[in-house]
Amino acid sequence: xxxxxxxxxxxxxRSVRGYRADPVAPEIIEQIFATAxxxxxxxxxxxxxxxLVSGDGxxxxxxxxxxxxxxxxPAPDVPMDTAYRDTYRARQIGSAKxxxxxMGITRDDHAGRQAAFTRNLDAFGAPHxxxxxxxxxxxxxxxxxxxxxxQTLLLAMTAQGLGSCAQGALSLYPEVIRKHLGLPAxxxxxxxxxxxxxxxxxxxxAAQTDRAALSDILTQHN
Length: 222
Ligand SMILES: Cc1cc2nc3c(=O)[nH]c(=O)nc-3n(C[C@H](O)[C@H](O)[C@H](O)COP(=O)(O)O)c2cc1C
Fold this sequence. Notes:
The chain is an alpha+beta fold.
């Protein structure tokens, strides 16, 4: 693999928010996770575990979360209480504009925005969703390890020709997921990742984000 190949793979990954129903072959799924195992972590503690939900089971879980969300408040294991300001707020707005613009949803179309958000809870109709957990009691440092694991997973999916989307929204109702899958309390749900074959006709998949200039993020010292 050349550096150009890696650059192309990294740039080819983008968030996919509309999927075909056909499942990914079990051997491909296994290969993706076998690759991601090789992500680095502090002291090689590998603080990640994954629950993979597929097919009808995923649709049922999505409906359970959608039903719960109508009356229940979000209660993520890892609080989502950071208010984005200044540059970060501008970038957040930029990504929302890209998505809602592609979907033809205007700024004051609250019902349209709500419906677009709710699609998150059904993993955008993907045939698979991976729920990524951090062990009980682990914090920011180990969450950084999890970020590397998630990106490695996403790139492995891209290399297999799959679409994917990391979704914090899939971590908003962790109790519903624990109950549905019969999981114990303790491990902290960080995010979900929907994946499968992209529905290229879905308007959400026309959204394109940009990135800050290199000079905005890199300071070199001699
Ligand atoms: C940890 C994490 C959580 C995210 N949560 C969501 C989410 O809940 N819903 C969503 O539509 N996109 C979500 N995204 C996707 C981001 O919006 C997306 O990565 C960003 O806008 C850049 O676009 P790109 O992935 O197409 O390059 C998330 C991404 C990450 C890394």
